[in-house]
Amino acid sequence: MSKPKILVTRRWPEEVEAELAQRYDATFNESDIPLSVAQLKEALTHYDAVLPTVTDSINAEVLSAAPLRCRILGNFGVGYNHIDIPAAKARGLTVTNTPDVLTDCTADIAMLLLLSVARRGGEGERQLRAGAWSGWRPTHLLGTKVTGKTLGLIGFGRIAQAMAHKARHGFDMDIIFYNRSQPPRDKIDAVQARQCASLEEVLQQADFVALHCPGSPENHHLINAERLALMKPGAYLINTARGNVVDSAALIAALQQGAIKGAGLDVYEGEPDLHPGFLELENAVLLPHLGSASRETRIAMGRRVLTNIDAFFAGQTPGDKVC
Ligand code: DGY
To answer: Nearest C-alpha to atom 4 of ligand 1 is from which residue?
Structure first.
């Protein structure tokens, strides 16, 4: 029997590409240049499986491909806001993602941003590299102490829980959170967290607000000017979720005016193009979407996709089926 034909839309760690090539009739994107909407649409007519990632917009236009050959979209990543799920469902496609394996590394990046922005790590490094460091002095680049402060989580899924664990047990932080549904009691107790009745309550009380909600249409600009105005003037915003959860212009204004103290960002609206206003801000630490970017994690993500498509082509339900 011939092997299913699969397309991997971006370069993956070489060991996982080798495993894919062994088990499937695999096509790789040697140039690693993101595919256009037209190329993605065409791919759905040529391959049994397409393995996309966050840089591929699998929108209604792509999903209108005909005749449709593709049966599964094995997404490399936990977030799937770049895939029009109702349209995929309507075409009878199975969609999978890669939860769990990137939880710790993404929570690490959230802590890295929190620490960097609070302790002015980015500013300090820029100053030193520019040859502008005149030496130690008692008032040089004074930041904000992290230990013992309150971390407010928006969303309380796996990555939020992992960040809470690091913050609670590593930095003795108090944890509060807002989540639309009721998380299991043992997850809350593990970090001695307090569930708030509203998003606004978290914004008003936290010293650090970390976003961990999906980039779904309902969460578009969840953090807008009005909500930023509720945060304490000394508070910081951390975003490792999705760029569209925050109104960039409103955040830039809040940072410029000192309405909040700083922001640590890994994700942006319209990335990789980001609002130029961010680049002017000393009180923003900006990373290029590095959440899951450790070698171990990216290999594990690739293997997770492999496990999902293996199950699918064996006639089973993939473990990480989204639809
Ligand atoms: C994820 O897994 O969602 C990362 O943000 C990369 O897509």
So the answer is: 77
- Whole-number Å distance, alpha carbon 304 to ligand 1 midpoint, is 13
Choose, from 289, 298, 303, 304, the residue flagged as catalytic. Answer: 289
> Closest Cα to residue 239, out of 167, 305, 289?
289
Give the pLDDT confidence of 122-144 residue by residue, as tens digits: 999 999 999 999 999 999 999 99
pLDDT of residue 1: 78
Instruction: Select which of 119, 221, 271, 275 is catalytic.
Output: 271
**Residue of 272, 218, 270, 219 whose CA lies nearest to 248:** 270
Helix (H) or strand (E) holding 153: strand 150-154
How do 150-154 and 94-96 pair as beta strands? unpaired
22 CA from centroid of ligand 1 (Å): 26
With a cut of 70, list the residues of the chain below it in pLDDT.
none
Decide if 280 is catalytic: no
Copy the structure tokens of residue 267.
Answer: 């994700």
Is residue 53 helix, strand or coil?
Answer: strand
**Residue 95: which H helix or E strand, with range?**
strand 94-96
Q: What are the structural domains of the chain?
A: 5-101+295-313 (3.40.50.720), 103-286 (3.40.50.720)
- Contact by Cβ (8 Å): 221, 244: yes
Write down the pLDDT at residue 195. Answer: 98
- What pLDDT, in 10s, does the model give residues 270-292? 999 999 999 999 999 999 999 99
pLDDT at 39: 98
pLDDT at 279: 97
Contact residues of ligand 1, CB 6 A cut-off: 53-54, 77-79, 102, 291-292
Q: Which amino acid is at 73?
A: L
